[in-house]
Design a protein that fits this description.
5-stranded mixed sheet; about 15% strand; DUF91 domain-containing protein; 2 domains; 5-stranded antiparallel sheet; alpha+beta; 14 helices; nucleic acid binding; 10 strands; globular; PDDEXK_4; tRNA_endonuc-like_dom_sf
Length: about 375
C-alpha cells in the first residue's frame, strides 16, 4: 500500500502541473465551444456536409471527400476495395424522403450513395436505420453504404433488433483522423486550416480525448517503469469499482435526499452501474399515475446521460407523451428527454461533483425544471 500511496501522490502532483499548463494553452480558446456547438447534431451535420461537398466554399474540390473515404477504409469501417466515384458528386443536408429525413446524403453520377445518420446524444427514432436502409435499396440497389455516426462508434440498438446492415463510425476515431488529414490538405489556406483545427479540438473535448500529448507521454513513461507497474495495474483494476462505490455510497443517498426534498420516491438501488447497459436512476411522483422521472446512460461506461420523463410500464396511458415531448424538447416512443447538462459522461469531474455535492444540486434543479415544464399536463 505504501507504493500505491506514493504513486498516487506523484500522479496528483503531475496533474496539478498539467492543469496549469493546459490553462495557458491556446487550445482553451475555441469558437465552436464558445458558440455552444456541443450536442446540436444539425450543426455538426452541416459542418461535415460542407467539408464533404466538392462544390463547397472550402475550394478543395473532392480532396476532403476523398480523404474521408480513405479514413473510413483505414479504420476498417469500409472494405479495402471500396470505391466511390467523384464525378458529379451531390451532397444534401436534411434530405427528405418518404422513408424519413436523412442527415447527410452523398450521391454521384454512377448512382452510388453514402447515407449518414448523425447521432450525438439523441436516441434513434422508430426503425430509423431500417427505413433509411429500405430507401437505399429502393433508390440505389446495392450501391450504397449506410453510416451510423456517433461520438464513440456505438451500435444502434433498434437497428440490431431489426437486423439492418449498417456501419458504425466514430467521431473520436475516424472523424478525428479525417480532420487531421484535412488540416494537412489545407496547410496553405490559413482560414480553412485553423477552422479545421478548432473543430478537431472541439471534438476532442466532446470525446474526452483532448490532452497534452507530451505530458501524457511523460506520465505514461513514468507509469511504465518496473517499480510502478504493480501499483498501476492495481489502481486500474479498481477504477470501475471506485465509480460504483461513489455512486452506491454517496450518490444514491443524495437521490434519497432529493426525493425527500421534492416529495418524490427514489426508486434507485445499489448495483453495478459502470458496465451495465442503460444504467440509470428514477423517481416516482405520487401525483403521477403513468410516468416517472428518469436519468439513463445510453452507452456503457456511464456515458451519454439523458434525463426526462418515461412511462412506468407498457400498460399505462401514454396519450400525453407527445405533449410532454414537445414541452421537454425531444424523446422517443416511450419517453421524453434531453441531454443531461454539464456532466453527460461520468468521468473524474463527475465523480468529484458527486463528492462535493454539485451533482446533487444539478440533478435536483433539473428535476424541478421537468416538473414545472409539465405542470398542467393531464394523465401524467
Amino acid at each position: 500500500m505504501n507504493e500505491i500511496s506514493k504513486l498516487l501522490e506523484e500522479v496528483s502532483w503531475f496533474n496539478k502541473i498539467k492543469k496549469l499548463k493546459v490553462e495557458k494553452s491556446d487550445d482553451q480558446f475555441n469558437m465552436f465551444r464558445i458558440c455552444g456547438v456541443n450536442h446540436y447534431e444539425n450543426t455538426h451535420s452541416s459542418i461535415i456536409a460542407e467539408l464533404l461537398n466538392p462544390n463547397a466554399t472550402h475550394q478543395f474540390n473532392h480532396l476532403f471527400l476523398e480523404s474521408f473515404i480513405q479514413a473510413l477504409i483505414f479504420s476498417k469501417v469500409l472494405p479495402a476495395d471500396y470505391e466511390f466515384k467523384y464525378e458529379n458528386v451531390q451532397v444534401k443536408r436534411e434530405h427528405q424522403t418518404s422513408f424519413g429525413r436523412l442527415d447527410i446524403l452523398l450521391t454521384n453520377s454512377a448512382n452510388e450513395a453514402i447515407l449518414i445518420e448523425n447521432k450525438i446524444y439523441a436516441a434513434d427514432q422508430f426503425e430509423q436505420l431500417k427505413r433509411y436502409s429500405d430507401y437505399g435499396k429502393q433508390t440505389f440497389a446495392d450501391k450504397f453504404k449506410l453510416l451510423y455516426l456517433t461520438l464513440w462508434g456505438n451500435e444502434s440498438q433498434a437497428a440490431t433488433v431489426s437486423n439492418v446492415e449498417y456501419v458504425q463510425v466514430s467521431y473520436c476515431d475516424t472523424v478525428l483522423q479525417w480532420l487531421d488529414r484535412c488540416v494537412e490538405i489545407a496547410a496553405r489556406s490559413p482560414v480553412v486550416r485553423e477552422t479545421l483545427i478548432q473543430y478537431s479540438n472541439h471534438l476532442k473535448n466532446l470525446t474526452n480525448s483532448n490532452t497534452n500529448a507530451i505530458m501524457d507521454q511523460e506520465l505514461i513513461n513514468k507509469l511504465s517503469t518496473l517499480e510502478n507497474l504493480d501499483s498501476v495495474f492495481k489502481i486500474a483494476d479498481n477504477v470501475d469499482n471506485v465509480k460504483n462505490n461513489i455512486i452506491n455510497t454517496v450518490f444514491l443517498k443524495q437521490l434519497q435526499e432529493i426525493g425527500e426534498e421534492l416529495n418524490l420516491n427514489s426508486l434507485s438501488e445499489k448495483g453495478e452501474f459502470v458496465n451495465s447497459s442503460w444504467a440509470g436512476f428514477s423517481f416516482s411522483n405520487p401525483d403521477w399515475r403513468n410516468f416517472n422521472v428518469f436519468m439513463e446512460f445510453s452507452a456503457k461506461g456511464l456515458r451519454n446521460l439523458i434525463i426526462g420523463i418515461s412511462s412506468k410500464n407498457d400498460q399505462v396511458d401514454i396519450s400525453s407523451l407527445p405533449l410532454i415531448k414537445e414541452k421537454i424538447g425531444g424523446g422517443n416512443g416511450r419517453a421524453a428527454f434531453v441531454r443531461f447538462p454539464t456532466y453527460p459522461n461520468w468521468d473524474v469531474d463527475a465523480m468529484k461533483a458527486i463528492l462535493n455535492g454539485d451533482m446533487k444540486d444539478i440533478v435536483k434543479n433539473k428535476i424541478i425544471d421537468l416538473i414545472e415544464i409539465t405542470r398542467g399536463v393531464e394523465n401524467l
